[in-house]
Amino acid sequence: MTDLPGVVITGVSGRMGRMLAAMVAASGKARLVGAVERAGHGWVGQDLGAALGGAANGVIVTDDPLEAFATAQAVIDFTAPAATVEFAALAAQARAVHVIGTTGFEPAHLAALKAAARHAVIVRAGNMSLGVNLLVQLTKRVAAALDADWDVEVVEAHHRMKVDAPSGTALMLGQAAAEGRGVDLAQNREAGRDGLTGARARGAIGFSSIRGGDIVGEHDVIFAGEGERVILRHVATDRAIFARGALRAALWGQGQKPGEYDMLDVLGL
């Protein structure tokens, strides 16, 4: 067991954090060696197993990420952009693989992650599932086959608690459509329609976001032409698909050269 890679989970009290902790512990492929929460959180100083309502497992929740990362070979991080940037620098110091499922990054955040990736492996993806990453590839191929007379709209739906829009997955799909067409997404992106917006611009790649209930994640890429539509769709019904993908990325990253990677690299797509 001691030969298995040690994994630290950040934001361990959250929905994904809890699921990741349970999956790593039960995987037989990695060891859960650390759990991180923000300073002042009620779980800090507690045994993680007990905090989760089960038997003690010897992993004490800490608010000191550097201490936790020092004993780890991988960090799995589904938190918030500012926290993830901080974790990236510390994971790079520890030379631990940093698997990032956080979304909502600004350009300054991405620049900081790029700097950290000069010293360690970072695997970052807006979505860790196999199905979504296949959808990304399909979107690129369909976009390459259809010209700008076909309007592209990415429609995504998530639970009411999600704080960023469009979702990271929607942006991945929009980027895939842009790459398929050979255009820049930033110059062709259309979102946030409200009121008298005027006609849709030819070649625009649109985004629509739905928030409600406990929706895990639904993504449609609609190619709308005259008299016909092509719709590519992925529906997630269980967050475990993201946890499985994140653990797979953490294991894949062992032995890779420092740099930035995504799930397409992990899955060999």
From TrEMBL:
Any idea of its EC number?
A: 1.17.1.8
- Residues of the active site: H158, K162
Q: What keywords tag this UniProt record? A: Amino-acid biosynthesis, Cytoplasm, Diaminopimelate biosynthesis, Lysine biosynthesis, NAD, NADP, Oxidoreductase
| Cross-referenced CDD domains | DHDPR_N (cd02274)
Q: Where does (S)-2,3,4,5-tetrahydrodipicolinate bind?
A: H159, G168, T169
Q: Which residues form the Dihydrodipicolinate reductase C-terminal domain?
A: 131-267
Localization = Cytoplasm
GO BP terms: namely: diaminopimelate biosynthetic process; lysine biosynthetic process via diaminopimelate
Binding residues annotated for NAD(+), in chain numbering = G11, V12, S13, G14, R15, M16, E37, G101, T102, T103, A125, G126, N127, M128
Question: Ranges for the Dihydrodipicolinate reductase N-terminal domain?
Answer: 7-128
InterPro entries reported in the protein's UniProt record = DapB_C (IPR022663), DapB_N (IPR000846), DapB_N_CS (IPR022664), DHDPR_bac (IPR023940), NAD(P)-bd_dom_sf (IPR036291)
One Gene Ontology term of the molecular function aspect:
NADP binding
On whether Amino-acid biosynthesis is a keyword of this UniProt record, the answer is: yes
Q: In which pathway does it act?
A: Amino-acid biosynthesis; L-lysine biosynthesis via DAP pathway; (S)-tetrahydrodipicolinate from L-aspartate: step 4/4
- Annotated catalysed reactions: (S)-2,3,4,5-tetrahydrodipicolinate + NADP(+) + H2O = (2S,4S)-4-hydroxy-2,3,4,5-tetrahydrodipicolinate + NADPH + H(+); (S)-2,3,4,5-tetrahydrodipicolinate + NAD(+) + H2O = (2S,4S)-4-hydroxy-2,3,4,5-tetrahydrodipicolinate + NADH + H(+)
Q: Does the keyword Coiled coil apply?
A: no
Q: Which GO cellular component terms are attached?
A: cytosol
* Protein residues bound to NADP(+): R38
Q: Which family does it belong to?
A: Belongs to the DapB family.
Q: What the protein does?
A: Catalyzes the conversion of 4-hydroxy-tetrahydrodipicolinate (HTPA) to tetrahydrodipicolinate.
Assembly notes? Homotetramer.
- Protein name in UniProt: 4-hydroxy-tetrahydrodipicolinate reductase
Q: What is the lineage of its organism?
A: Bacteria, Pseudomonadati, Pseudomonadota, Alphaproteobacteria, Rhodobacterales
